[in-house]
Amino acid sequence: MPSTAFLESRFLIADADNPVRGVCVHALREHGHEIDQASSGAELLQCLHSRKYALLLLDPFHLGMNERELLQRARALDPALLIIVLTAHPTIDSTIAAIHANVFDYLLKPCPDADLVRSVGRALEMRARQARQEHLLAMVRNVMSELESEPEPPAAEPVDERQLGWLELDREKRVATLQTKPPLAVELTEGEVALLSALMEKPNHVLTCAQLAHVALGYNGMDKWTVESVIRSSIFRLRQKLEPSPDAPKLIHTVRGRGYYFAAT
Q1: Beta strands in 136-203 (DSSP E)
Q2: Which of 33, 139, 234, 261 has an alpha carbon 20 to 30 Å from 7's alpha carbon atom?
Q3: CATH architecture of the domain with range 5-140
């Protein structure tokens, strides 16, 4: 049974050799794909103008255009297009053109059907992994947006005011005051207040990202990568607001591989 990723979309096969093109079409249709065909460079580009394809399989030789120009124009029409070159005429120039066009694979004719199918499957699995990563990043961005606009109530015991060293935190007003000359008042979001308060409640004590996410933000059950992304982004914003030199923090310190702590002095 073909994988789910291997059943996902329409391909374009461009080859001036009709019998070879027919063999490729048959091999890929056996795996559930819809296939369009082109026998020239001009026809190939017209197809790319007309619709979206998941993958382009082509032999750029004898398509009536310079190989490098053809691959460049195909890539310009669809920067995300998966491209596999299948050719009986490998040359240094065609190899360089393929590299510049960021092709996924470069196969030589005659190519067994099984090898072609495996190459296409690898290309689609790579695209599926990229899509999953993009989806996860979108989830993180949504979490960060919720943190800014509709934060969860903090799980830590509420504290209206807290002062450590040269920082005073007023939770009710959501203001942190740096005891500089003159004092500098900085407005914080609810999420930033909760995170800073959790750190200040245990000065000089290292809290992990998971502990901060649970105690300060009330987040439970999130995967480790998402938790770390949320907390690191929040710490970055706090440092930008509170630290005189964010790249050399004096208030919120990092313990690599463990977490963060608030310096009491």
Answers
A1: 161-164, 167-170, 175-178, 184-187
A2: 139
A3: 3-Layer(aba) Sandwich (3.40)
